[in-house]
Each structure stands twice: as structure tokens, then as C-alpha cells.
Amino acid sequence: MRGFTPAPKPRRPLAWTIRDGGADIALTGDLDEGSDLEAVAREVSGGKVAIDLAGVGRINSFGVSRWIRFLEGVTRVRGRRVSLAGLPTAFATAAALVPNMLKGATVESLLLVYRCDDCNREEEVAVRSAKEASAERACPACRAAMIASVDREVVAGVLGG
């Protein structure tokens, strides 16, 4: 079909869930100019904070800026340890381009999308190391090799090694 352009996905407003008295946070939606991360920051408490980003969709330059300010504020508390889990591919790609986007936090896992070119199947997998991300994956449907959606350099930059 020539000239076909898929319809843009509708914006998903940022939402959050706070558990364990402000030490466990889950974000969902898009990080953009409408994201109120200041409200999230006001609810953060404790010496060890875990932030789950698996539900984050798109992120634009406004979202990157808001995220950096949020993370700087959360990590500024003396002795606080911040861990990030489930970084989506879009978030990891942005972090590879913006050096201080993850400053002060430890990345526990990255969500990679693997694609099979033979049968067009996609599968999202949480990886915890660059070595794990570079391991070959066989498509569960056709057993062909699956390819990761992000370059190895991005994975190594986010997860280290």
C-alpha cells in the first residue's frame, strides 16, 4: 500500500502508583510537556526508592527535561539510593543521547523488544545486563533468530558493560 501512514497513537497521560510509603513507584503513560513529575517527587520518601518505568510509552524532549529535574530532586537526598527497573526502549535510547538522564540512579533492568524478521513476531524481554541482551534468542513461533530493537552500545551505556 503506497502512501499509507499509520494513525498516530493517542497521548497517554502520565499516571503513577505509590506504594510502601513512597519508596516504590510505578509510572505509566507518556513523558512529555504534560507530565507532572513534581507531584510524584512530593510523594517520594525513604532511603531506598525503586521506580518501575515499564509502563512508560513515548518520551519527547520536554519529557526528558522534566525527568532529569525529577531524578535530580529525588537523588539529591543524602544517602538515598534510587533504582530504575523496566526502562522501555524509547527511554533507553533517549538516555544514550542525554548523558545525565540516569545520573544518580542504578538501572536494574531494561525492556528490549526482539523482532523476528521471518514471521514478524515481536517479544518484549526484561534484561539485566549487556551480556544477557546480546544473547541469541530464538523466536518461539518459528525458531528463527530474533533481533533486538536497540543497539548494543545503547544497552551497554544504560546497563554497563
Q: Gap between N and C termini, in Å? A: 42 Å
SSE pattern, N- to C-terminal: EEHEHEHEEEHEEH
Number of domains: 2
Q: In CATH, what is the homologous superfamily of the largest domain?
A: STAS domain
As a percent range, the share of strand residues is 25-35%
Would you identify the regions where 5 or more consecutive residues have pLDDT less than 50?
none
Describe the structure concisely.
By secondary structure, the protein is an alpha/beta fold. It has helices at residues 37-43, 61-75, 89-97, 130-134, 152-159; strands at residues 15-19, 24-31, 48-59, 81-85, 105-107, 110-116, 122-127, 137-138, 145-148.
What does this structure look like?
- Helix content is 27%, strand content 32%.
- It has 161 residues and is of the alpha/beta class.
- The chain has 2 domains: 1-108, STAS domain (Transcription Regulator spoIIAA, 2-Layer Sandwich); 114-152, no CATH class.
- The strands form 2 sheets. The protein has a 5-stranded mixed β-sheet with strand order 1-2-3-4-5. A 4-stranded antiparallel β-sheet has the order 7-6-9-8.
- α3 (89-97) links the parallel β4 (81-85) and β5 (105-107).
- It is globular, with a radius of gyration of 17 Å.
- The mean pLDDT is 91.
